[in-house]
Design brief:
Layout: H1 2-34, E1 40-49, E2 72-82, E3 87-99, E4 102-114, H2 125-132, H3 135-144, E5 148-154, E6 157-164, E7 178-182, E8 188-197, E9 201-210, E10 213-214, E11 219-220, E12 223-228, E13 231-243, E14 278-283, E15 286-290, E16 298-302, E17 307-310, H4 316-329, E18 335-339, H5 345-348, H6 351-357, E19 360-364, H7 368-375, H8 385-388, E20 394-398, E21 401-405, E22 410-415, E23 426-430, E24 435-438, H9 451-463, E25 469-472, E26 480-481, H10 482-488
Parallel strand pairs: 17-18, 18-19, 19-20, 24-25
Antiparallel strand pairs: 1-2, 1-13, 2-3, 3-4, 5-6, 6-7, 7-8, 8-9, 9-12, 10-11, 12-13, 14-15, 15-16, 16-17, 21-22, 22-23, 23-24, 25-26
Helix pairs in contact: 1-3, 4-6
Length: 491
């Protein structure tokens, strides 16, 4: 009798599994049919993007207002999605900061692509997901990768959710997951996935597709919005679309080599060389840490019972190297604080190992929400220091000024505003040694100051800080002084 029940149970399980598989295949087929069963599609209009975890000038706005705000306009935007290759390309005309610390936007070209090699789901997910989070790419991936179907309600709307995973695994060994939300009209309203990111942990990537309409024989959304980690990342207003364009291979030509968002994949070469840290003694219990040319420098300050690190800088490897050097120079004291000059990705990369160390992040008030959300996101896709030793990020903020002192050692922190580079910039002043430490206000001897330094100097004059040494996070070829800064602005 028990054997009969077991056989019946196995049969039912098989039938249910087959039904679910059939359901997902039917959902995929119906959605592909609703989109016109296209082999390729092109759409165009206007768009806007951001330099990820950055904020700076654009043609729309010369000053940073917040995380990923402003976004950079992209005019004459065109995208081609080729399902047979499979591949995609997108391009448009932009205005980029001129570089070298200048804020005046200069004409440029946006270009992003997913090649056929990158679209192979055994290749890094970060390189291919821009293809698969499109409705067309998602359905192609779902059909080829054993998607499952379920029902879910989001924002009061019922969806059939198709779920599949690429064959490539995350650094932690966990499978990536991608979900597509198919509405009652068999149209894909949203696609989401997750990608491990140094600051943002299991970063949620969400693309929403709204205002679906018939563009003269092909269905396409009139509005596309992509967020990463909950922050704006990319938007498109679609004004035209065409199915199976005959010139699909040449419609979006690659520009001459110059960077754009996305692009050509992982850099060549093996692992970077180990960082060799050297220190410069600036005073009693006060050191500058550097790795030489191209370094992101930090300053460590010894208090009676703890250490404060000014800037963790750029990468996990650098953060770990600076932690190790700090413990050699000042043993038996905890790193209680790490001061973050501003939230750009090259100035936050070393924070995760400091969080794992138990240090409290000191940052300007405008950066609190971003760092709080990012560093406290689960890190199940990563195998870095913080993933291995998870701790909740502790954050203290500075509004305009904050002084840390134990009676013998003092560090003063100031918000510098308004400046174009970031609305959350801090500088540190160490009065005993008359040192000013700052993130992105670099001067080059013999050359005029850039726009960022020109914005900083009036603020320093108003603060009336009596400094002699001027230390950049971006290491200088030789020690710099207040006189160097004043000369660069013609004073």
């Amino acid at each position: 009798m028990l054997k009969k029940f077991a056989v019946v149970a196995i049969c039912l399980a098989f039938l249910c599994g087959s039904a679910m598989a059939q359901d997902s295949k039917t959902v995929i087929a119906n959605a592909q049919k609703a989109l016109g069963d296209v082999k390729s599609i092109t759409y165009s209009g206007s768009a806007k993007d951001v330099a990820f975890q950055q904020c700076g000038s654009s043609a729309a706005d010369m000053n940073c207002r917040g995380t990923h705000d402003p976004m950079r306009p992209i005019n004459n935007y065109v995208r081609v999605i080729d399902l047979t290759a499979p591949a995609s390309r997108q391009t448009g005309a932009t205005n980029n900061p001129a570089g070298g610390g200048a804020t005046q936007p200069m004409p440029g070209t946006f270009f992003q692509q997913v090649t056929a090699q990158q679209a192979d789901v055994s290749q890094p997910w970060g390189n291919s997901l821009e293809f698969y989070i499109t409705p067309w790419g998602f359905l192609k991936g779902a059909a080829a990768n054993n998607a499952t179907a379920s029902r879910r309600k989001v924002d009061g709307k019922n969806y059939t959710v198709l779920t599949w995973s690429p064959s490539v695994k995350a650094p932690s060994g966990k499978s990536y997951v991608i979900n597509g939300y198919v509405n009652d009209q068999n149209l894909v309203d949203r696609v989401e996935t997750w990608l491990g990111e140094n600051i943002m942990g299991d970063m949620h990537i969400l693309a929403t597709y709204t205002g679906w309409k018939d563009f003269g024989g092909v269905m396409a959304p009139s509005k596309i919005v992509q967020t990463r980690g909950g922050w704006p990342f990319f938007e498109v207003n679609v004004t035209a679309a065409k199915a199976n364009p005959p010139d699909v291979a040449t419609l979006v030509p690659a520009p001459a080599p110059a960077g754009g968002r996305g692009g050509g994949g992982a850099p060549a070469g093996g692992a970077p060389a180990p960082l060799v840290v050297t220190s410069e003694k600036l005073g009693d219990g006060l050191y500058r840490l550097t790795t030489g040319p191209g370094s992101y420098d930090s300053v460590i300050v010894e208090f009676k019972d703890y250490i404060m690190m000014l800037e963790a800088g750029q990468s996990e490897a650098r953060g770990l190297a600076y932690i190790a050097e700090t413990k050699k120079l000042i043993p038996n004291k905890p790193i209680r604080y790490v001061m973050n000059t501003h939230p750009h990705s090259d100035h936050t990369g070393g924070l995760p190992p400091l969080v794992a160390e138990g240090a409290t992040i000191i940052t300007q008030k405008n950066n609190e929400e971003f760092l709080e959300k990012a560093l406290n996101t689960p890190r199940t896709l990563l195998n870095d220091t913080l993933a291995k030793n998870p701790k909740k990020a502790k954050i203290e903020t500075v509004s305009e000024k904050k002084v840390y002192s134990d009676g013998t050692r003092t560090v003063e922190l100031y918000h510098v505003s308004p400046v174009p580079h970031s609305n959350g910039l801090l500088i540190a002043y160490i009065p005993k040694e008359k040192i000013l430490f700052q993130g992105d206000f670099s001067v080059t001897p013999g050359q005029p100051a850039n726009d960022h330094v020109k914005a900083l100097v009036p603020i320093l004059e108003k603060l009336n800080l009596d400094f002699d040494r001027y230390i950049n996070v971006h290491t200088s070829a030789a020690p710099q002084t207040k006189a160097d800064v004043w000369k660069a602005v013609g004073k």
